[in-house]
Amino acid sequence: TYGSEDTKRAFVRLNAGTSDGPRGYISYGYIDADKWKGFGIQRQSIVNAKAIVPVGEAQFDTYFSYSDRVEQDYQDLSLEMINRLGYKWDNIADNYPLAVQIADIAANRGDTGGPATNPAAGLVYPAPIITVDDAYFDASGLRKDALGAFGLTAPLDDAVTFKIKAYYHDNTGQGTWYTPYVPSPSGAPISVRTTEYDIQRGGVFGSVNGKFDNYEVTVGGWYEHNDFRQARRFYGLTSRTDPGRSARNFMRNPFFTQWDFNFNTDTLQYYVQNKLTFGDATINIGWKGFSVKNEAVPVIQGPLASGNIKSRDWFQPHVGAAYKLGAKAELFAGFSQVTRAFVSSATSGPFSTTQAGFNAIRNTLKPEESDTYEIGARYHDPRFNGTLGAYYVNFRNRLLGIATGAGIVGNPSVLQNVGAVRSYGFEAAGDWRIGNGFTLFASYSYNDSTYRDDVFNAVGVRLAATKGKTTVDAPKHLLRGEIGYDSDGLFGRVGANYISRRFFTYENDQSVPGRVLVDATLGYHFDLGTAKPIELQLNATNLFDKKYVATIGSNGFGNRGDNQTLLAGAPQQFFVTLKA
C-alpha cells in the first residue's frame, strides 16, 4: 500500500504444510506513515508465526508474535483551541527554538510553578499561542511486545476433549512528553517526562469438554501471574539549542525518578458452561468465578500508594437461548453478570492515589459489576441477512478517579465508588443482495446511557451533579449505510457513517457535535494465472474532507468546563493497494 502522508505498508505471509499434517505460517507486516499534521511518524513492525503438529489423535500448537511500535503523538486539543487555532494545530517537533522560547516565557510568568529560566524572553507568548499548554515540543508512544504460547489438544475418549495452553508475554514501553514544567540540569527549560512500562506475565489456561446426546459441557480454568513495573522518570536535554534526544527512541539515563513501583497481580479464574439442545431450541447456561490479588511494592514511592487489595466473585452466571423459526429465522435472548477486578497501576486504579487515600478506601472499595439483558431476532436467506436486538445494562459500583489537578501534570487521583449507570437501546442491521452484483447494507443503533447518582466526596460534598446526565463518550445514535458492487473484475463500495453528539464532561455542559464520514473503495481483479486473481484497490477515507473531532477523553474527562482532551480526525486521504 502507498498513499497520503507518505504511507507505506507491506505485508507478506508464507504458509506451509497440509490440512491433516504438520502446518503453519509466518508473516511480516510493516507500516510507516507521516503524521497527517505537524511533524512526526507512525511506524510499526509485526511478526507472527504459528505451527500445528498432529501426534496421533493429539495436536500440539505453538504461536509467536512480536511487535515494535513507534508513534509520535498528536497534540490534545480543547474546543477553545480548535476555534482559535484550528483542527490542524499540533505539537512543534520541528521547531525546538520556539519550544524553548515558550517554556522560558511560561517560567517567567510563573505558569509552570518554577523559577524564571531566561528573563530576557519576556512575558508575552508569540501569537497565536496564549498558554504554555497550547503546544509542546514533542511526545510519543514506544512499545515492544513479544508473546509466545504452546498448547495441546487431546481426546480423552470419543466424547471428551482436553485442552491446555501456556503463554508468556514480555513488554517494554515508554510514553514520552517533552514537558515545560520541569527544566533540565543543562539549563534547557524543557525535560522529557516518561511513564515507563515493563511487563513479564505468564499463565496457563485449560478446559475439558464433553459432548453427549443432547448436551455439551465444558469446565475450564485460568491462572496468570503478572509482574508489572511502572515508573515516572525525567530525562535531561543537551542544551538550549540542541535537545540531544529524539521522541522516537527509548530514553536512557534519567536525572530524576519521581516514583517507581513493582505491581504483582495474581489471577485465578474458573468457568462452567453447558450447552443443551431440545429440537429447535438451544440453551447455553453456565457461570464463572475469579479471585484477583493486586499488590504494589515501591522501589521509589513518591506520592503514591503501596499495599495490596483483593477482589473476588466466585459466581457470575450467564444464560443464552436461541430458538429456530424454520430454516431462515431465529429468536435469541441472553443474560450475563460480570464483575471487574481492580487494576494494578500507578496511573489508574486503587494505587493511583496517596497512601492516606488508599488506606481509607482499601476495605470499602467495591469492584464494578454489571447485569446485561438482551433479546432479538435474526433472519438469513440467500438474498437478505438481518438482525434486530434490544438490550438493557445495569452497571453499578462505578469507579471514578477524582482528579486533584490537570490531567497532563499527573497528580494523584482519589478513587471511589460513585454510583450506577443505566443503559438501554436497540440495534438493527440488514444486508441485501439486490442483484447484478449490487449489495446494500444499513445499520442503526440507539443507546440511552445515563448516570444514576451525583458524585460526592468522602465528606459528603457534591462534586458533580451527574444524576440523569448522559454518559461521557456515549453517542445516542449510530447509523451506517453502504452500497457495494462486485463483478468478475470490477468491485467497489461507498459507505457513510454517522455518530451523534458526544459529551466530554460528566455534567454534560461540553460536547462535540455529530459527524458524517464517507469512505469509498474502487478496485479490479486481474486474472494473470496466479492462484488467485491479482487485486488493485484504491481507497478514499473521509472522502469529503470533513473537519471533526475523532477521539474524546484522550486526557481524561472533567466534571464541567472545556478540557484539553480532544483529538482531531484525519482529513481526506487516498491509498492504493496491490494484493497478490
Plain-language structure description:
This protein is mostly beta strands. It contains 3 helices and 30 strands. The chain has helices spanning 79-85, 96-109, 355-361; strands spanning 2-3, 7-17, 23-34, 41-55, 58-72, 139-155, 160-179, 191-211, 215-236, 256-278, 281-300, 307-325, 329-339, 369-380, 384-396, 399-402, 414-417, 421-435, 438-451, 455-456, 462-464, 477-486, 490-499, 502-503, 511-512, 515-526, 534-541, 549-552, 566-568, 573-579. It has a 22-stranded antiparallel barrel. The protein has a two-stranded antiparallel sheet with strand order 16-17. Strands 20-21 form a two-stranded antiparallel ribbon. β3 (23-34) and β4 form a beta hairpin. It is globular. The two termini are 12 Å apart. The mean pLDDT is 95.
Core attributes:
580 residues; 30 strands; mainly beta
In short:
The chain is mainly beta. The chain contains 3 helices and 30 strands. β6 (139-155) and β7 (160-179) form a beta hairpin.
